[in-house]
Design brief:
With 111 residues, the chain is mainly beta. The protein contains one helix and ten strands, in the order H-E-E-E-E-E-E-E-E-E-E. A hairpin with a 6-residue loop joins strand 1 and strand 2. The radius of gyration is 14 Å and the shape is globular. The mean pLDDT is 94.
């Protein structure tokens, strides 16, 4: 039972089963602020992120496998690693992508 509750809460805060990262897909209104650390997503990514007023304010991605990161977003994202800008695709059908290297951390802004 305990693992089922944890899995359910995780699905409310992150989904990755459709091939992209979808942050806060079912955020309860009572949880307008919070953070999530060390959650693993499909594609070999470990995520830390926080939100305020039901909006993401910080997203950090650790690429464990060097795969392309695919994020659900209708906005242009600003992605950086080691203080340098990373090229990302323009939003197309609500999806943004960027290349990653294994072991590197990426910051995403603009979600």
């Amino acid at each position: 039972g305990s693992f089922g509750v944890t899995a359910g809460i995780t699905e409310m805060l992150l989904q990755s089963h459709q091939g992209y990262l979808h942050f806060l897909p079912a955020l309860p209104s009572d949880w307008s602020a919070g953070s999530f650390k060390g959650v693993c997503a499909r594609g070999g990514f470990e995520l830390d992120y926080s939100w305020e007023n039901s909006n993401l304010v910080r997203v950090e991605v650790l690429s464990k496998a060097g795969n392309t990161c695919v994020v659900k977003s209708n906005k242009r994202l600003m992605v950086t690693t080691e203080g340098k800008k990373v090229s990302s695709s323009l939003p197309k059908n609500g999806i943004v992508t960027f290349a990653t290297s294994q072991g590197k951390r990426y910051s995403i802004k603009g979600l």
